[in-house]
Backbone:
């Protein structure tokens, strides 16, 4: 979670709910215990580190909300996240709005993960949460936003088929039945929403392309302001990915590495030349990030293997050769130890897996 943050507006909203239930002094105590400064909390552009955000959620304990606190509407989103909400409310279609929802979601936060799988007549959304023993309220908020988008773009032909949430209810069950046409089920294994929207690509008649471009530009500029500089590990992973990719082409690639050159010693030397660092300096920077060159190399090797197995028809023998393995059996042992299954089993599973959106 190093480097991940959430918008200060998210925690400000959480603490306002605490204040309405337990009073201002309780909200202030939770904020101080989580290590969040008053100045940062009220900065509209402030970003709160993931560790402090999760600590705040842990301190809150279970909240029992009322119906009005669950309701989701555009004025709420426009007040808290004006640029983000403006992009979502003025896209070319529901499909476009969902793409922007996923692409620009870090404007709200990047601690948890929202995934969307497109199906023939709609989508399945899954919300994966960081941290143990958390309420599924954050997942519910995101699902409510998806439902709001669907009603905004396709009020007649879209519908939420089901909502599943982990853990216990955070409001009386009657509130959910009043707000949703579908059943909201708690105690599930995953946070999941199924949306039926067969006309999702239908153009939005009130779409304003000039305003849309303006708001997207503003949103991207806002994201660039809090985007951290890439770590040494990330830079090395990107470089290794190019090396492994180039190993399968007819040329040696920008790093001058052929499949036969892919061993830790020769790659480390090539990486030092690429980044203009001595071995000691590169290894020291990686140690500061609690990793090593061999760990990064193995991770990148496994990632490239997964890419080739799921997105190409390259044979297992050729993949092993590209990644520098002397024999298919050595590659199979490596892949099984890192991914928990054989390469052939992984490829078979990927061929039957629904495609991710976007």
Residues:
């Amino acid at each position: 979670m190093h480097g991940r943050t959430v918008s200060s507006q998210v925690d400000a909203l959480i603490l306002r709910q605490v204040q309405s239930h337990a009073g201002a002094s309780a909200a202030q105590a939770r904020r101080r215990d989580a290590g969040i400064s008053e100045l940062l909390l009220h900065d509209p552009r402030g970003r709160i580190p993931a560790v402090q955000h999760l600590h705040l959620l842990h301190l809150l304990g279970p909240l029992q909300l009322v119906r009005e606190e669950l309701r989701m509407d555009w004025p709420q989103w426009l007040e808290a996240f004006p640029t983000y909400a403006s992009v979502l409310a003025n896209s070319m279609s529901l499909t476009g709005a969902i793409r922007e929802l996923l692409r620009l979601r870090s404007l709200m936060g990047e601690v948890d993960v929202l995934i969307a799988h497109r199906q023939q007549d709609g989508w399945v959304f899954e919300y994966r949460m960081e941290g143990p023993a958390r309420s599924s309220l954050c997942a519910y908020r995101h699902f409510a936003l998806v439902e709001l988008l669907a009603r905004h773009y396709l009020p007649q032909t879209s519908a939420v088929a089901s909502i599943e949430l982990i853990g216990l209810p955070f409001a009386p069950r009657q509130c959910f039945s009043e707000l949703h046409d579908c059943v909201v089920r708690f105690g599930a294994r995953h946070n999941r929403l199924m949306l039926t929207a067969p006309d999702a690509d239908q153009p939005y008649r009130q779409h304003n392309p000039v305003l849309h471009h303006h708001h997207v530009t503003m949103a991207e500029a806002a994201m660039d302001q809090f985007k951290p500089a890439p770590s040494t590990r990330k830079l090395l992973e990107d470089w290794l990915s190019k090396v492994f990719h180039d190993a399968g082409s007819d040329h040696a690639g920008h790093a001058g590495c052929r499949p036969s050159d892919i061993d830790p010693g020769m790659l480390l030397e090539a990486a030092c030349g690429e980044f203009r660092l001595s071995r000691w300096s590169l290894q020291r920077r990686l140690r500061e990030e609690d990793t090593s060159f061999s760990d990064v190399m193995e991770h990148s090797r496994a990632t490239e293997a997964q890419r080739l197995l799921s997105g190409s028809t390259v044979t297992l023998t050729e993949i092993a050769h590209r990644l520098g393995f002397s024999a298919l059996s050595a590659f199979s042992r490596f892949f099984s130890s890192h991914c928990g299954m054989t390469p052939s089993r992984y490829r078979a599973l990927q061929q039957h897996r629904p495609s991710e959106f976007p």
